[in-house]
Amino acid sequence: MRDVFQQELSEVQDRLVDIANHVIVSIESAVRAFGDSNVQLAEQVIATDPLIDDKAASLDELAIDIIARQSPVARDLRIVVSALRISASLERMGDLARHIALLARYRFPMQVVPESLQPTFAEMGARDIEIAKMLRDLLETQDLSLADRLETADNHVDQLHRDVFSHVLGTTWEGAAHTTVDATLASRYHERFADHAVGIAKKVKYLATGDWTGDDDARSDMAPEPVRPAGVQD
Amino acid sequence: MRDVFQQELSEVQDRLVDIANHVIVSIESAVRAFGDSNVQLAEQVIATDPLIDDKAASLDELAIDIIARQSPVARDLRIVVSALRISASLERMGDLARHIALLARYRFPMQVVPESLQPTFAEMGARDIEIAKMLRDLLETQDLSLADRLETADNHVDQLHRDVFSHVLGTTWEGAAHTTVDATLASRYHERFADHAVGIAKKVKYLATGDWTGDDDARSDMAPEPVRPAGVQD
Prior knowledge:
- The structure is a homodimer.
- The first copy, chain A, has about 230 residues and is an all-alpha fold.
- Chain A has helices at about 1-35, 40-70, 75-105, 120-140, 145-170, 175-210.
- Chain A has a single domain (about 1-220), classed as Methane Monooxygenase Hydroxylase, Chain G, domain 1, CATH 1.20.58.220.
- Chain A has six helices and no strands.
- In chain A, helix 1 packs antiparallel against helix 2 and helix 1 (about 1-35) runs parallel beside helix 3 (about 75-105).
- Mean pLDDT of chain A is about 90; it is low at about 215-234.
- At the A-B interface, helix 2, helix 3 and helix 6 of A face helix 2, helix 3 and helix 6 of B.
């Protein structure tokens, strides 16, 4: 029975890694679509997002089935419950990649953001891709040093997010209202993508260290924040 | 054993209703703080958000404990797992109320949005409050007609969200970039608040009707959308 359970946990893990791989492809394509104004790539991201949703839903069914059949307790139960939460966050990361792609498609053949902001978004996109890959590796190897590196990369994304707002709210900004709206939302999508990855990394870390008290998303949103321009609280 | 389980389910339900009541207070105060530029109320929302987070975390612990002790299966298990998801969404609704309050505090003593947008935001805020109350009632009474009414109210919020963007992107908009940023984020917070409520309502509905296939968040974000101004996809 125990062996069967371990096999099933391993199946859950494989599926999380598989979903993470799909999220990597989505964010890579979305970032390229956004940066290069590539509408075909954007369409691809939008078209394949339901696949990620289906995979997450199917993993949830498996997790619930495992709980029902195996009645795990203690740490085993927490691992399966965490898988449910991790799949929800991965699914949301896929949605955010899709939102970035939707912006690229909507503005095609124009760029979503003006030239002055493109280096910042390119950097933010590169960090998001890096974070998605670290997350996949963390789910695959449980190497907790990746969780710490991932948090560092997220701090970098937060800084870039603030940079976007400093620029938009600065005296040299000449963007039309629609450009300001797009830059605001695009920056937020990039930042939330990284946030979800950090939330997942924390769950993996807490499962490994046994400190359950940290296993909730709320805290990540409650951290004291540096002073930011208004509206950059999330 | 069965009676104990039913008692525990009833405790879970009571706690969800309790958290929903706190969310109602938060969104009511946040909407008033936002509309009246009331910094004391904004501070209150910001200060009490950790209470909602703690209540959600504590409910999660209870739910996991129930699964471990009672080994529920089939519908019973799905009810407890859904409680985990519902608490996460309620917690997030509290965060969004907090984000609205943060905007109000940041711009105090000024209004966050110009006079031309205030009626739209007042209406959106009123709908969010109404939605939070319907959600609380739904969790308390399981009256599924509330789920349908809630979805109708959410459609109204979506329309108001589009109205905000039509206005911001229209020819008469003279807001500075920071006002455009604030209006964009504020509108999104109001809209996401309602989205989370709809997600919860769907879970309650699916639990009651036994149609598990609909019990995932992904779908709500995949619905075909009316043509919107760019950047209003989420």
